[in-house]
Amino acid sequence: RIRAPHLGTAFVASSLIFGLIAALVILGPIARYGRAFQSEVQTDNAMRGARALEVAVGRAIEREWDSLVAVAANADPGDLESIRGYANAVLRAGGRIAWAGFADRGGTIRAGAQGTREGEDVGTRRWFREGLSGGSVGNVYVSPQRRPGSDSDDEALVNLSTPVTNVVGQSVGVFVFSLRMPWVDTYLKMAAEELELDAFILDREGNVIAERRAEGAPALAPDAIRTFQLNRPHTEVLSGADVRDEVYAIIPNMTA
After folding, report:
1. What's the CA angle centered on 222, arms 154 and 230, to 5 degrees?
2. Predicted TM-score of the model (pTM)
């Protein structure tokens, strides 16, 4: 007897922040002559679930990006106190941002939330270089120091950066937000639970840094991460550790 299928999803770090993998776990054997049809139905369901979660989480991250762009558009490099005020306000807005600040064109932080990191040279940092040339969403990393409002010394963050321009459109610096991954984890859990999906966020090395998995749900199949290298939307049917079939819908470059 075929029991009701269970949907699951997984995020894997990609060229920006995430790629998206959705997994549909078949909880019972598929009848021999119905297997092809059942697989087709399940892969279609998996891809639809993946797309829905992609939209939900993508919109949440997009809201933070839009906020960053709006702050940068109003930042006056000649008024550092005002910029510092913007950065402080960002930290108070829901706790999603661990740190915010402005670096001038030379790569020196001139205004930071709560006055932190001011004077630091960030000219070689990826978020600064790419932010100066048009904007950047970086890779997940672990903060080397505790940020304001955090209860952890090793909080996972991702930097969002965008240029600050003058009246003629020239880049004169970079504004940056350090987005808290635990917030993304919380939002992921909410969205995935509403969609009845299991979800994982992994870094480039395949380490799980956030997840929503129902009790008793199987772990993410190692082969699922390898298929992500195909770098195109597709589905895969893989055998799980408990010999059940798992159908993965892979959507790389979710934030591209």
Report:
1. 100
2. 0.73
